[in-house]
Amino acid sequence: MQTPASPSIAPQVDQHIHPHVDVIKVSAKSRSTAVAGAIAGVVREHKRAEVQAIGAGAVNQAIKAMAIARGYLAEDGIDVIFIPQFTETSIDGQERTAIRIVVEPR
After folding, report:
1. pLDDT digit string, tens, across residues 36-50
2. CA-CA distances (angstroms) from residue 69 to 51, 87, 94?
3. Does residue 33 fall inside a structural domain?
4. pLDDT confidence of residue 76
5. Which of 24, 49, 80, 83 could pair with 102 in a Cys bridge, judged by C-beta atoms 3.0 to 4.6 Å apart?
């Protein structure tokens, strides 16, 4: 059973990029189990999720979370695939390269 994440390390969900798909923003301080729960919930509800991370620590947490989420979803009979891509995003007026990973059923 998952415990609630504290606000400072919970994944952020951005619904403004695509109205039907939530973008789960992961930081190096995000708890992988909290992110995994968010990924699984979004995939169950929308049949697709997007995970975004900037930096090695954030990408590490995102990858661990996706592995955990795959297990959560497998319990419901949902087999997912992950499609990584680079994307540019603006943070505090600076362009940054992020990894965005689409999660969807196989």
Report:
1. 999 999 999 999 999
2. 12, 23, 31
3. yes
4. 95
5. 83
